[in-house]
Amino acid sequence: MKTKHRRKLLSSEDLLGSTFNMAEDSCEGQPDQPDEEMTVPVIGPPLGSTLLLPGQTLDDGPAYRQTLDVRQHKDIDMISETSEGMDDSVISSVIDKFGFMHSDNNEYSGVDNIDTDILRRRESKWLEMFSNWDRYMMRSYNKVRDRCRKGIPTSVRATAWLHLCGAKFHMNQPENKYTYRKLCHTRCDERWISDIEKDLHRNFPTHEMFGGAYERIGQEELFNVLKAYSVKHPADGYCQAQAPIAALLLMNMPAESAFWCLVSLCDKYIPGYYSVRMEAIHLDGDILFGLLKKVSPGVHKHLKSQGIDPILYMTEWFLCIFSRSLPWSSVLRIWDMFFCEGVKVLFRVGLVLLKFSLPQNVRKKCPSMCETLSVLKNLPEHVCREDFLIPEVLKLNITEDDMEREHRKQLAKRRRQQNT
User: Fold this and answer.
1) Closest-CA residue to 135 (of 156, 105, 163)
2) Rounded to whole angstroms, what are the CA distances from 67 to 88, 103, 140?
3) pLDDT digits over 182-229, tens only?
4) Which helix (H) or strand (E) holds 102?
5) If exposure means fewest CB atoms within 10 Å of the residue's CB, which of 4, 20, 160, 293 is most exposed?
6) 31: three-class secondary structure by DSSP
7) Residue whose C-alpha is closest to residue 159's, from 346, 336, 390
8) 3-state SS class at 125
């Protein structure tokens, strides 16, 4: 079998090593900079896990999704301020509306508050949809999508997410009544337990639920959700990137609901993201790069000329669904759309970030991979703000047909490589 032209898929450990080596190579002859500025975070799954879809064997090759659409016909019956680090010297009593602690109350917290009357009308519309959910999803999906794009009211967000991803349907099945409780008390592989425990304090330490007054309760629930998932999916086990996703869900809903949402997201929205060789992330990275050529040819040419693989900048964005990369108000708006429209939202957000973070005047200041990756790691504040980012995502000149076409193109490319 010929392998000369076949692209190598890297494991999580390979990715970490290659990222650092490429960043170092690109910065030879550059002035010394602090190490943290050079780090390109890549979160990957632990070694030893393998993703197998139903009916698939280890010899069948990578498991890729066959469409970017999460609303497949077969699923109709089932319808029923980044907080990455905390200054050791500052523990603040100022808590914003999202539950994060700050050293002052001047932190950007999203667009101005919506008029109370408008908010109440939106809430009543969502409550009406909940009472007729199947009918809305089958006959008025565009209306549901538009309301998600406007932003789901905080008071109904948890219920909306549960309905949108199908977690509510699974929770209501009689056979699942005690599933979460049983999984929490089932023996788990010790390597997953150890990895989960190591990561508990790393997730949103400036949020009151995980580093404040409710730290013990929050971390205990986070542990239970992640453990229950690893027991339910022993082939996947635990991946570090799942922790911030589970933590975000716990900020908005009870532990059992968060668990079923996590299951739905990993199984239906981003299947294969946490497999050992990360084939799905490689695939989506190439799709993103292909779409970039249409959206911003200048940025595409710049990244290509410097040999910057998409995996070096989009891995954390997609694996963590932007929860570790953007202001919290932007994250929640993205998640509202993501739960309704699926991975296509991630592509749109990624394309907007690339287009507006690397305009021509910035590209001129990035003669090598070093400077370019630094920009993409430290995204411009104005680009990440909700009042700029979300409108640009919604008006981006890219259609669903464009995404599906690029997806099929990349799948066909991989099939050809597997047959050579």
Assistant:
1) 163
2) 45, 45, 22
3) 999 999 999 999 999 999 999 999 999 998 788 999 999 999 999 999
4) strand 101-102
5) 4
6) coil
7) 336
8) helix
